[in-house]
Amino acid sequence: MTISLWRRAAALAATTAGALLFTGVAPTPAAAATPTVLYASPGGSGSTCSISAPCSVTGVQTKVQGLVSGMSADIDVYLRGGAYRLASALSLGPADSGQNGHKVVYAAYPGEKPVLNGARQITGFSVYDSTKNIYRAPVSAGTQSRQLFVNGVRAQRARGPLNPSGFTLTGSAFTTADTSYASFTNASSVEVVDDNAWKQMRCPLASITVPAGGGSSLNLNPACFANNNTAVPNRGFPFNGAGLPKLDAITYVENAYQLLDTPGEFYLDSAAGFVYYMPRSGENLSTADVELPTQQTLLNVSGTPGHLTPVNDTDPGITYTGSSWGYFSARSLGDLYDDVHGTTANGDSVSYTFTGTGIDVLAETNSDQGGIDVYIDGTKVQSVSATASSRLAQQVVASVSGLTQAQHTIKLVKTSGTWITIDGFTVVPGAITPAHDITFQGLTFAYTTWTLPSTVGYIDNQAGILWDAGSSHAPLRIPAAVQVHRGSNISFTGNEIAHNGGTGIDLADGTQNSSVAGNWIHDTSGGGAYVGEVDDYYLTDTSRMTTGDTVSENWISQVGQDYSDAVGVWAGYTRNLTVSHNDIGHTPYSGMSIGWGWGYASPCSMQAAQGLKTCEHGTIYAGGNQILDNHVHDVMNILNDGGPIYTNGGQGNGDGSTTSVLAGNLVEVGNHTNNRLYQDEGSSYWNTHDNVTRIGGGNWIGMWTPTIHDINIHDNYSDTAAYNNKGTNITFNQATIVSGGAWPSAAQAIIDAAGPDAAHQPLTGRIDDDDTAISYTGSWTANGNRGYGDYEDAVHATGTNGDTASLTFTGTAVSVIGEKNSDQGQVEIFLDGTSKGLIDTSATTRSAQAVIYSTSGLSAGSHTIKVVKRSGTWATLDGFNVTGVHNDTNSSITYTGASWRYSANRSFGDYQDDVHATTANGDSATVTFTGTGISLVTETNSDEGTIAVSLDGASQGTVNASSASRQAQQTVYTVSGLPLGRHTLTLTKTGGSWLVIDRFDVR
Ligand SMILES: [Ca+2]
Ligand SMILES: [Ca+2]
Ligand SMILES: [Ca+2]
Predict the structure, then answer these.
(1) Which of 382, 799, 897, 954 is deepest in the core (most CB within 10 A)?
(2) Which positions ≥6 away from 42 have C-beta within 8 Å?
(3) CA of 222 to the centre of ligand 1 (A)
(4) What's the pTM?
(5) Closest ligand relative to 538 C-alpha
C-alpha cells in the first residue's frame, strides 16, 4: 500500500540513487516543516502523547485540539498496534481539523496493526449440545448484534435451507404444512428474507402459530410487511422508478436456535444472554478470537450542519397570506411530497420563520409562473422570477445565505405572472463548516453491527438505499463503519475496512475533495464505499454539493454479505467524482452503482415515450463524474437486474458543460447480469468508450427505455454483440466483437491497465482465475457463488478441447489450481513452451482448490505456464500458485525512513543487480502480499546486522544478516504455512551498519 506519510522518507531517499558500496553522502532532507508527532496506544493513558507515554485515542484527540490553531506543520498521530475497543465511535469534527494549510494525520505505527474494533471478545465457550456440536458462551443479557466473527471469518446467522418449498403467503403470513417452525423459540427474532429481482427484503416475525389445519404459520411483523408489500413507501420520482418487487416468497428463514445445523452458524439469544455457535473444522473455541460486534460506527468525521431535509409547503410554520392561495396535491408533477401551494393574485405572500444562516425556496418554474419579491426580516433582498419555458418541479427559485445565525423570517410576495407555486423550504441552520484536512492511513476498522433491521426489517429501495420505516419514509442509508458527513479534504489511504455489519465507508452530506484511495474494503454486510446523497438533487449551492471526491486504487470484495442489494461502490448525486483503478469483485448485486433519480431529469417527451402517464420532471446536479479504468468482476452472484457497472439518472445539465465519462473499464464474469454496462433509466450525458466487457450473460451494454439519452458510445470491446439500445439521442457504435480471447492490442492495453496500479497491488503468491494477468483463449466461461469451496468462490471453466489459459510470471515455482470431479478430463500443461504431458483431473468426487500440476526449482526469472483442455466435459481453473520473485524496486514495497537509498550495478550478484539499503536504525521496509509465505532474499555481510520482523502487526523477533563476508541473495527471513490471504511484513533495521533489501519471494 502506498502510504503518503511513509513516502515522505522514500522521496528523500530517491535522490541518492546509485551510491556504489553506499559510501556516498547521506541524503540531505529537503527543507520542510517538521511535523508534530503524537502517539496513542490501546492501553495509553498519558497526557503528553509521547512514544514513551502514549495517550488513549480520545486523549490524543484532546491533545490535537489544543494544537491545531497554532499549526505550522502537520500533526502526525501514530497509533500503536493492538485493539482499540471503542465504547462509542471516535468522533472528529471541525475542532479536530488541520489548520493553516496543514493536516492532522492518523497513521498506523510502522510494522504495527492498530485496529479500531467495535466488538466484544467472547470467551467461555462450552459444549451445549454435543450431538450437534453446538457450543455456547455467555454474553450480557440484552446484547444486540447481528454478526459474529471467528478468527476473522464471518459466521452465518443460523439459517434454514434456500428457497424452502411448501409456503403459501396469505395476508401477512407464510403458512406451511411443515410443523417444525411452530417449535421455534424467540419467534419475534426470526426473520424471513426474500431476495427478489434487484432487492432484498426482510421482515422479523410477530409470531409463529399453528394454523387450524396444522403446520406452521410464520406471521410477519405487520408494519414491516406493509412497507415491503402492500404499502411500499415509494415517494416516487426522483427516488425510485417503476417496478416494485415485493416480499412474496421466502429465500430463507433466519435467526432461530432451531436452525443452527451447519458449521459456521451462530445464534445470539439476546434476552437470555447466550451466543451459540457451531464451529467449523479446525476451530478451537478455547483459543479462537471470537468477536461479537456491538458498535455501529467506529470513526465519525462530521462537519456541520448535518443532513439537510426540506420542510414541505404543508409545514404548520408556514403562513400563506392573501385570498387566492390554494393547496394542490397528487399532481404527479414531481413536487416534493407530491403537493404545492399556489396563488394567482399579485400581492399574495407566504412567510416562514426559521433559525439559521440561509434558506432555499423550492418552487415550480414554468411559462405561467412569474415574479417574486423576497424579503428577509422585512427587508426586500431579491426579486426573482419563476418563469421558464417549460415546467420544472422543485427548483431553487430563491436562495439566501450569509445571514447571522439567528431567527429570521422569509417572506415571498407574488409580483407578476399567472402563478407562484411554493413547494418547500430548505433551511441552512448554520454556516457550512466542514471537518477538514484529516488523513487516516494504514489503520484497520473492523467489527461493526447495525441492529435497526432487527426491529423494523430491511426495506430496500435499491443498492443499499432504504426507506425509513417510520412515517417520514425518508431515504435511509445503511450506516458505515467509517462515516464522513460534510467533510472536506478528508483522506483515507492504505486502510483495511472489514468485517462490518453495515457499509464500509461512506462520504455523506456534501463531503468535498475527499479521497478513499488504496484501501482494502471487504467482508461487509452492506456496501463498500458510498459517496453522496439521494435527496439533495435540487441543490444549486455548490458549497452543499458532494463534489470533487475520489475513490481509487481500492480493493473491494465480498460486500453485501447480509444485505445482498448493496454494492461495491455507490454514488448518489455527485459532481466531479472520480472512481478509478478500483478492483471490485465477488458481489451479490451490481459491482458499482453510479447516480440516482431515474428519469426525473429527462424531458417530458422522453418520459412519455417511455410510457409514463405523468411527467415528474425536475433537475439534478450530478455531472462531471469520471468512472475510469476499474476492474469489476464476479458480480450479480445472488440478485438479478443489475450489472458490473450500473448507472441511474441524469448526468450533466444538458448544456454540454458537464458530461460524465465511463471509460477504460474491464467488466467480466457477470453471473446473473442482464447488462454488463447497464445504463438504466434516465442515464444521460455519458461518454462511454474504450471499455472491455467479457464473460457472463446479458448485453454488453443496455439502455432499455427512451428516458436514457444523449450517450456517446464508441471504441468499446466485447465478446458478445448483444446490446439493447432503446434510448434517445444515443450515438451508438457497436463494440469491436472479439471471439476466442483474441483481444486486439488496444483492448489488451485496457485489460492490462484496469484495476489498481502496480503500487497498489500486493505482491502475490496466489493468482485468482479473475486476475487480468491470465490470458484465456477459446470459449471460457466463469461463475461465482458456486459454494464448492473455490478460492474466492469462483472459477473459470471451458467445455472446449484446445482452449487455453496462460500466465506469465516472474518466479521460481508454479502450481495450477483447479477442480477435480467426475466430469473433468485431461489437461495438457506447457511450461515455457514445453509440454509437461497430460494431467488427469477426473475424480469420483468433487475436490475444490485441487493442485492439478506443480513444479518448482525454476530459475528466478520470467516463465509462462499454459493449461490446455484436452478431454472430458470440463476443464476448470481456480487460479495459480506461484512463488513470485519481486525485486526491491517493486513499487508496492514501502520504504520508511530518511536514510534509504537505491544502488544499482554493484556487480555483487544482486538480483537484477540492484538493492535498496539504509544505515539508520528504525528505518523499515513493508510489503503487503497475498499468499501463504514470504522470504527476504538479500545480501549478508560483516557490516550488516539485526532486523526486527513484524508480520501482520505481530513481532516475529529478530533475524541477523551478518556474515563473515559478502554473500548475495541469501535467504535471511522466511515464513510459510500462513492462512492463504493478505498479509503484511515489515522489516526494521535494529543493528549493524546496513540493512539491505534485494528481493522478496512470495508463495
Ligand atoms: Ca410540496
Ligand atoms: Ca477462484
Ligand atoms: Ca534487487
Answers:
(1) 897
(2) 80, 81, 82, 83, 84, 85, 114
(3) 29
(4) 0.96
(5) 1
